[in-house]
Amino acid sequence: MLAANIPKPGSLLISDPFLQDPNFSRTVVLICEHQPAGSFGLVLSQPMNLLLSDIVPAAPDLQLPVLCGGPVANDTLHFIHRKPDLLQDSIRIKGDIAWNGDFFQIIQYLQSGKMEESDILFFLGYSGWGEGQLMQELQEKTWITAEITNELLFKTAPTKRWQNALLALGGEYAEMVNYPINPQLN
User: Fold this and answer.
1) What's 117-169 look like in SS3?
2) How many Å apart are CA 26 and CA 144, to the nearest integer?
3) Cβ atoms within 10 Å of 108's Cβ, excluding its own
4) What's the start-to-end Cα distance of the chain, in Å?
5) Residue 36: its pLDDT value, please?
6) Residue 153 CA, distance from chain mean position
7) Which of these, 64, 56, 40, lies nearest to 131 by C-alpha position?
8) Is 79 exposed, middle or buried (0-12, 13-18, 19+ CB in 10 A)?
């Protein structure tokens, strides 16, 4: 089901198949925060060649993949998880999906087995929009909106999220997965 055109936490932004911006071509972004002054989101579909243990020396045993959250502040670590009642300072996005929280608790819970690796995703950087910028992009049809699901977030490979998000919408959106990246080369 399509989300309203006003993004809210838990909304997905699915890039138009012809979007040429290399930061967002064939991506899915989870909106974590949307305010009049701007929006904050995390790209769900861009794996990096990094593990959490590569960037957090205190956790050499945590071999969890890290995704590129977006082109902004790519020296910052963010995480999405489904344990908002377990982690202090979590910001609930939608249902049991939460953003950030006490990082030291996360490490402790992952190392002790209190939290499963399948309950969390890590990101370097984020995607941000200034005042009115995201709404303008939505009016220009740069993004297709939908609602996040646990299935897409925690059970779908990052490289399949764009395709699966469109397939879940069905109809004309499902057809978009077969569109060429550059129609002029077709």
Assistant:
1) HHHEEEEEEEEEEECCHHHHHHHCCCEEEEECCHHHHHCCCHHHHHHHHHHHH
2) 11
3) 13
4) 30
5) 86
6) 8
7) 40
8) buried
Measured CA to CA, the distance from residue 15 to residue 18 in angstroms comes to 8
- Average pLDDT per 10 consecutive residues for the chain, totaling 186 residues: 68 93 95 92 97 91 95 96 91 94 92 93 96 92 93 96 96 91 63
Q: How far apart are CA 123 and CA 130, in angstroms?
A: 21
Give the pairing of strands 120-130 and 91-94.
Answer: unpaired
Euclidean distance between CA atoms 15 and 142, whole angstroms: 6
Residue 66: both structure tokens together: 């890290």
Spatial separation of the C-alpha atoms in residues 89 and 101, rounded to whole Å: 4
Name the residue type at position 110: L
Map tokens 């995480």 to a residue.
Answer: 79
Question: What are the beta bridge partners of residue 51?
Answer: 65
Name the strand (E) or helix (H) holding 172.
helix 171-175
Question: Which domains does the chain carry?
Answer: 11-185 (3.40.1740.10)
**Residue 97: strand pairing partners:** 94
Stated length of the chain: 186
Cα(168)–Cα(162) distance, integer angstroms: 10
